[in-house]
Amino acid sequence: MNVIELKDIIKTYDMGGAEEVHALRGVSVTIAKNEYVAIMGPSGSGKSTLMNIIGCLDTPTSGLYQFNGVNVSEMDDNDLAKVRNKEIGFVFQTFNLLPRSDALHNVELPLIYGGFGAGERKQRALETLTHVGLGDRVHHKPNELSGGQRQRVAVARALVTRPSIILADEPTGNLDTKTGEEIMGLFEELHHQGNTIILVTHEADIAEHAHRVVRLRDGLVETDEPVRKRKAVAASVS
Amino acid sequence: MHILTEFKEGMLISLRSIRANKMRSVLTTLGIVIGIVSVTLMATAIEGVDRAFARSAAAFGTDVLYIQRFPWVSNEDWSLIRNRHRIEVEYAAKIERQVKLSDAVAPVAFTRRRTTYGNLSMEDAFVSGTTHMYMNAAGVTMADGRFFTAEESNGGRPVCVIGANVSETLFPREDPLGKTVRVAGFPYTVIGVFEKQGGLFGVFTSDNRVFVPLFSFQSHFGGRRDVTIQVRVADVKQMDDAKIELEGIMRKIRRIAPGKQNDFNINQQELLTQTFAPISLVIASIGLFITGLSLFVGGIGIMNIMFVSVSERTKEIGIRKAIGAPRRSILMQFLIEAAALCLFGGVIGLAIAFPLSLIVNQVLPTAMPISVVAISIIISLVVGLISGFLPAYRAAKMDPVEALRYE
């Protein structure tokens, strides 16, 4: 079953006057349940725009976007917020945790907007934090945690609503290589547990963790293929 | 349930944010504090003036009609009424014979004379000549002693009853009863003291007066002078009928042809209250408007700081939106923050205004009305909601992509 179906997605930004920027010029991508897909491309290729549209943070200028069979391309603000809350778990490059809240409250946040009661919220947040290996850090504030730990909190926040997809935007961009590898290991594990993961990155060695890579260039899909063997990628990089 | 959860989260966020910016919050709140203090104190003072007036007007008695040459309050051209004939003492007896709806009639003549006791004196004390019926025809009570009897009154005995202020001035440390005061040199023995009436119309109340029998008054200070005839209506519910009856009797006495204007006035306490009410309303409106301006300025301060708060937390708004906060939640979060700031200011304002109102109470008979407390709490909440709305609305309709990109 397909979670995401994008058909001829066009996104044009009106920069005022007659000037227009064509960020996406007709992108069609389909992502099935439990896939692990990397979206790659140099800056300006439109991958951020695509991620925003997949993540329901933005709507396409034209084209059809079906999420779990539901057309979300013409949804209004509040319905999109609902989809983001229930179906999408975001992991950002800069973690984007609330600085004044502890890990537990950060993870509870989506459940608050999802309307869960205090008891269930706390229980699920604790479970999820334990699941990402932070069961002993629940009352630490972000500034009391290392980069890797912060990203784990962010992953827990993404997971806690049991979303249909996890959308990670350069999740290792602010981490050192070792910690980055650990986070990628965590994604691998989540994928094995049945989660659908979409990874947006410009780093080839991060993208190779995925099982399929969609390459964008100038607002169009350049290639869309399964990941080659690890060694082959490593060879081509070096 | 859903709303309640979001509301709790909103409270939590706003308290946390207020605590994180203590200095800023206190300074911002100061505007509301000052606004609430001035509005509540103004309301308290207005209440005090109203109460002082009501109390003063009560001294005239709700059931007493005053037949007089001139009206207490009037828009009439003075030149039309200045040549009216005086009200004669004899009218009182005629009225008393004919009247049915009133049960006490007392003529009262006035003059101002120097009144002394020993070395103490009261220049220009109000000296009133009246009959024993005065006690029944006025809203006064005795503090000590008694009023003069019919015999003393009719016989023109040299006795007097003094008001509270006269007693305090001439007898600061003595019991006035039985003592002899001199009114313009004539000796009068004090047989009674009135209870203090107080109020805004001090000179018109019994407080500054020396009451002597009318016959003594006439022989000592002159017989032919304008008097007031005080009439007490038997049943307050029949005030209007009693007034019409009196008017008829007076027109007969004065021989006024049908169709001609009255050349006298029947005054009553209601006239004062009716005149005062619109004045009081104007004073209250202007006072509250001016002090309300300070609250308005306080509200602008809150709005300003909320705009700062919103733009400072653009990133946070982006995060919340990304993980599914609907517009409503963001709007509520900032509205709660603004309302909490104002409510905080309102409570502090009340805490400051309350002791100050006790000081006002020294001058005016007032206390901060409980309604003012409730209203100022509500007003500060409303000010918060109004001044928080624009910033909160701006936050609510932020584009999540833009907001997330904000550093």
The CATH superfamily title of chain A: P-loop containing nucleotide triphosphate hydrolases
Strand content range of chain B: 15-25%
Shape of chain B: elongated
Uncertain runs of chain A with pLDDT below 50, 5 residues or more? 231-238
Q: Quick check: average pLDDT of chain A?
A: 90
**Fraction in beta strands of chain A:** 25-35%
Radius of gyration of chain B: 33 Å
Q: Oligomer, anyone?
A: heterodimer
Instruction: Please name the CATH architecture of chain A.
Output: 3-Layer(aba) Sandwich
State the domain count of chain A: 1
Please explain how this structure is put together.
The complex is a heterodimer of chains A (238) and B (407). Chain A has 238 residues and is of the alpha/beta class. Helices cover 36% and strands 28% of the residues of chain A. Chain A has one domain (36-49, 85-237): P-loop containing nucleotide triphosphate hydrolases (Rossmann fold, 3-Layer(aba) Sandwich). In chain A, strand 1 and strand 2 form a beta hairpin. Residues 231-238 of chain A have low confidence and may be disordered. Chain B is α+β, with helices and mostly antiparallel strands. In chain B, 57% of the residues lie in helices and 17% in strands. Chain B contains 14 helices and ten strands. Chain B has helices spanning 2-20, 22-58, 78-81, 90-98, 134-137, 150-154, 164-170, 214-221, 239-254, 269-312, 314-322, 327-363, 370-396, 400-405; strands at 64-68, 102-117, 120-130, 142-145, 159-162, 180-183, 186-194, 209-213, 227-233, 265-268. In chain B, helix 1 (2-20) packs across helix 12 (327-363) and helix 2 crosses helix 12 (327-363). Chain B starts with a helix and ends with a helix. The relative contact order of chain B is 0.19. The model of chain B has no long low-confidence stretch (mean pLDDT 87). The A-B interface holds A 52, 55, 57-58, 77-78, 81-82, 84-86, 90, 92, 96-98, 100, 109-110, 112-118, 157, 161 and B 1-2, 5-6, 9, 16, 20, 315-316, 318-329, 397, 399-401, 404.
